[in-house]
Design a protein that fits this description.
The protein contains eleven helices and twelve strands. It is of the alpha/beta class. It has three domains: 41 residues, no CATH class; 190 residues, 3-Layer(aba) Sandwich (Rossmann fold), CATH 3.40.50; 96 residues, 3-Layer(aba) Sandwich (Rossmann fold). The termini are far apart. The chain binds zinc ion. The site of zinc ion has 8 residues, from loops.
């Protein structure tokens, strides 16, 4: 049904606890080999697991789930503009889609005592989500994070019983600590391919909620790639299976400060600042390991990218709240990019777009 292969050299994964290719050091990706058929959905399951026939899980066993997924897709006050309320999840961010599949996939490795616990690096949302699903599964979890982490996110992670290790330094320092923790299985959303198996269900849901049609545009906050690659893979799967009749234009949205995907796609050089100050604090991957994979996937599917500045993000954040949608600034990047494209005439009258609103505003404090 599916293969796990290196995202760079294509060599199959040999052991299910390998999180990077021993040959080239790159992360794995999952290749799904059967067409999607709406008839195979479990319509009595009101979570993302209704698509379980199409979700790769390392080993079938007890599912670690809290009813995540099937988030509302609502019209906004702007004609033809829809919002997918991904912040309506057990831990307040879309990350729960990935965590349910990821923790379900690795549970046997902990239960079999090959590892004592799981570890992850995070600026907050992935850490909260993995900590919650680890708690549900009875697995010990350590979250490696930055000195700059928001208090609210810290409190949430601690509430789930996870340990926190705060380190000075950037993503390379924090990731290294999580990767080399003794007796610990590294379960990064950026590296572990099962995470994207969860996020691809956003595409299935959008299509199903629209009566198996694709929107013209989907605006996706983009950082490490675990969201955008999942969304692209999901829509690609539907399109290649003949379930939808076109690929939407997927737009990777990044804050100006953290925009390696935008710059690589536009063939422009990118130099990250020494210190990040952007209000989009969930989007911090200045050197994502899956950068080339994102650029290739966007090119192959005629996707695009956009950058937005902090003031535009804050304006969009207000605009969303004014219609009752209280999200993280990182999520408001999508509306900022949409507004830009609308002004520039890139989106024609009558073309519809979906914004992925990924994180709850309650995480801001
Ligand atoms: Zn490789």
């Amino acid at each position: 049904m599916f293969k796990v292969i290196c995202s760079r050299c294509g060599v199959p994964q040999e052991e299910d606890d390998h999180w990077k290719c021993p040959r080239c050091g790159y992360p794995y990706r999952i290749v799904w080999e059967e067409p999607f058929n709406p008839k195979d959905i479990d319509s009595h399951d009101y979570s993302l697991w209704r698509y379980r026939r199409f979700i790769a899980v390392a080993r079938q066993g007890e599912r670690v789930s809290m009813g995540e997924g099937l988030t509302p897709l609502i019209p906004t006050s702007t004609p033809y503009l829809y919002a997918k309320l991904e912040f309506m999840m057990p831990t307040g961010s879309y990350k729960d889609r990935g965590s349910t599949v990821l923790i379900t996939s690795v549970k046997h490795l902990i239960d079999g005592r090959r590892y004592r616990e799981v570890s992850i690096e995070s600026s907050g949302n992935a850490g909260s989500s993995v900590a919650a699903y680890a708690a549900k599964a009875g697995i010990k979890c350590t979250v490696y994070t930055y000195l700059s982490i928001k208090e609210s996110k810290l409190r949430q992670i601690l509430a789930y019983g996870a340990e926190i290790v705060k380190l000075p330094g950037d993503v390379s320092v924090v990731s290294k600590a999580a990767q080399t923790a003794p007796n610990s299985l590294y379960v990064s959303h950026a590296w572990n391919p099962y995470f994207q198996e969860g996020t691809k269900t956003i595409a299935y849901e959008i299509a199903e909620q629209r009566g198996w049609t694709a929107p013209d545009y989907v605006f996706v906050p983009t950082s490490a790639g675990s969201l955008i690659l999942g969304v692209i893979n999901g829509f690609r799967h539907l399109f290649s299976s003949g379930v939808i009749d076109k690929m939407p234009t997927i737009v990777a949205v990044q804050p100006l400060e953290v925009s390696p995907v935008y710059h690589a796609l536009m063939n422009k050089p990118y130099k990250p600042p020494t210190e990040l100050t952007t209000v989009a604090d969930a989007l911090i991957s200045t050197k994502p390991i899956r950068l080339q994979e994102m650029v290739d996937s966007l090119r192959e599917t005629r996707g695009s990218a956009e950058i937005v500045e902090d003031q535009e993000i804050l304006n969009s954040h207000k605009q969303l709240a004014a219609e009752g949608l209280y999200v993280e600034p990182s999520s408001a990047t999508t509306l900022a990019a949409y507004n830009k494209w609308k002004e520039q005439g890139k989106i024609k009258h009558g073309e519809d777009a979906v914004l992925l609103l990924t994180g709850s505003g309650l995480k801001i404090a």
